[in-house]
Design brief:
The complex is a heterodimer of chains A (about 375) and B (about 130). By secondary structure, chain A is α/β, with parallel strands linked by helices. Chain A has 2 domains: about 210 residues, Alpha-Beta Complex (Quinone Oxidoreductase, Chain A, domain 1); about 160 residues, Rossmann fold. Chain A has 11 helices and 17 strands. The two termini of chain A are about 15 Å apart. Chains A and B meet through helix 3, helix 4 and helix 10 of A and helix 1 and helix 2 of B.
Chain lengths: ~375, ~130
Amino acid sequence: MRALVYEGPYRVRVRDKPAPRIEHPDDVILRVTRAAICGSDLHLFHGMVPDTRVGTTFGHEFTGVVEEIGSSVRGVRAGDRLVVPFNISCGTCFYCERGLYGDCESSNPMNDLASGVFGYSHTTGGYDGGQAQYVRVPFADVGPMKIPDDLDDEDVLLLSDVLPTGYQAAEMGAIRQGDVVAVLGCGPVGLVAARSAWLLGASRVVAVDRIEARLGFAERWAGAETIDLRREHDPIAALKALKGGHGPDVVVDAVGMEASGSAWQTLVGRKLKLAPGSSIALHWAIHSVRKGGTVSIVGVYGPPANLVPIGVAMNKGLTFRMAQANVKRYMPHLLEHVRAGRLDGKGLITHRFPLERAPEAYDLFDAKADGCVKCVLVPSA
Amino acid sequence: MDDAGRVNVSGAGIDGATGVRPGVPRERRAPDPGAHWDRPEQQHDLTPLARSGLLHATPVFGTAAPPRALSGAVRRLAYRVPEHRATRWALLLAGDRLDVIEHRLAAGLWLLPIAAALAVGYVGVSRALRR
């Protein structure tokens, strides 16, 4: 089959590789119909994620049609259209039983950090991802959701990650009626977090970024006010001013380890890799949120450690919430928001490429050029 | 906002009550209805490289790129180091860079016969010209 293959930092190619096969009785093999490129795929692309091996296929946001089923699969049939959560979860372990699907302990033998994730290095289990013609999907009876007949694949594609991650980011902020919410980063997850903050009762939502096209998206798609970092050189002061000098009630960090905004952090964390990326967005969140407020983190940070101002957080009495999204838990609820037009995931897709042009898509998405917000690969094109 | 100061975003406030939020409470006790096992069957075809201290392989695991060559040895060493130590992650990143070098060298191996043929040809022509 044809698949995107990682060949080193900043280098992906589309090559022939063996098609996946059933390796466990509850596996299915999916023929991929759509595969999105996620902002966190760029961390892999940049060589930031430990144990990213040459030859692996990225992609943890995909839909497809079931081609082959394992011997014990009960709830899925050949021909079913599925949207698949990025986390691979068994449904019955200590964590899944508590609804913490992103922490499933049955799918990642490499460490005790997170569940298995499709196409996200061997640090999350060593699974090939969906940026290919076919993909193996373990625990098919648990994670995937059948796509309703009234919806097309692109309507629900982002239920695999972006919509649940963004919604959970806002939800973890424990937003109350009338709260002021700031969202750092206007990538797809940040945009969904901003939009979700409205659904959860915020009275004012402010999105922060430095890319004009994305700020425009934040205004149009998420209905948010914006702070443009190209013009605002003191984002902490600007955020604090939002609520009479106190700062927002909730700040969502939807940026993670590749934030720009600090020359020192960029040099040490991103260029020299002496720390796992830059934590400047987290610094801004901690310093700008009001005392007693909540910082919600969904931006990805790598192991083992970042320097963050924990003393400031302690003295301000902040609450931190963070997690990989427990996707499966959110799918049914967010499907209704999609149907009702309250969360238009398809509307975030700005670019579509045939699988064969995936390297070009990565370069475009990485450069955030041409107004690119979300790139989708189409294997059949 | 409209003239009365109300937000015009479709569905604003619809999930305001915590009771309708899918992530509240954070932990709930209910096995997933899709799972038809107490513990999933074990994937058997090979034993994955896994962290030290893990008694059994997880029921499923990925097989995207088994460790190989020198980068594989470095990765095997890394997974013997506990994950709270920076050494583990530094070794994994070192393994990643080695992996790329190995890959590039392997990709360039096809050039060796051509280079050898050119070298032999050059030596042969040089000797012929000297006569």
